[in-house]
Amino acid sequence: MKPYKKLFRFLIAAVFLIFLAAFQIAFLNPYFSGLNFFVILAIYLALTKNNAKAMVFSWFGGLLTSTSSFAGFGTNGLILLVFAAILILLRSTVFLAGKTANILMAAVSGIVIYHFLNWIIVNILAFFGASASGNIAFYFAGPGIFVELIAAIMILPLMLKIKKLKNG
């Protein structure tokens, strides 16, 4: 592939992530608190074995969305980066086949792992005085996690079917 094509793809991906983060911050956060498209994107990229893209997109998307987070700047990027690494490890050990049951299990377990990891990292930062601590019920009891679970269960199989049709 020619170097200018790689640069062009990189720029398109960066602009897409910026628009996705802007859409999430402006429209989704006020109405569906807890819905994070970058979590769904990380699960999708990990399931499709795009490890480098999962790590980079998760980190960059986390940095973009951490501007509207109550934790310190960059915390969401760190959480999504660790989350993508955990998903890559889980995909290579647990979610080996691309069956529908595994996709749904990856979506549900991925959302739960993300929220638990979010709670752990925010409380570690609170221990060091970098942010306010949070009750675990705040991360799991709100309507946002249910909206995120439903969105992940609906979007992930659809994205994987589109990818399968595209690849033939």
Quick structural summary:
The protein is mainly α and 168 residues long.
Strand content: under 5%
Instruction: Estimate nothing, just give the exact number of structural domains.
Output: 1
Largest sheet: none
Total of DSSP H or I helical runs spanning 4+ residues:
7
Mean pLDDT: 78
Radius of gyration: 16 Å
Number of strands: 0
Distance between the termini: 22 Å
Q: Please identify the structural class as seen in this structure.
A: mainly alpha
Low-confidence stretches: none
Gross morphology is globular
| N-to-C SSE string, H for helix and E for strand | HHHHHHH
Helix content: over 70%
Walk me through what this model shows.
By secondary structure, this protein is an all-alpha fold. It has one domain (34-167). 79% of the residues lie in helices and 0% in strands. It has seven helices and no strands. The protein has helices at residues 3-31, 37-47, 51-65, 75-93, 100-127, 136-140, 143-167. Helix 4 runs antiparallel to helix 5 (100-127) and helix 5 crosses helix 7. The longest helix is centred in the N-terminal third of the chain and has 29 residues, at 3-31. The radius of gyration is 16 Å and the shape is globular. The two termini are 22 Å apart. The relative contact order is 0.13. The model has no long low-confidence stretch (mean pLDDT 78).
Using brief descriptors, characterize the structure shown.
168 residues, 7 helices, mainly alpha
Write the layout of secondary structure elements.
Layout: H1 3-31, H2 37-47, H3 51-65, H4 75-93, H5 100-127, H6 136-140, H7 143-167
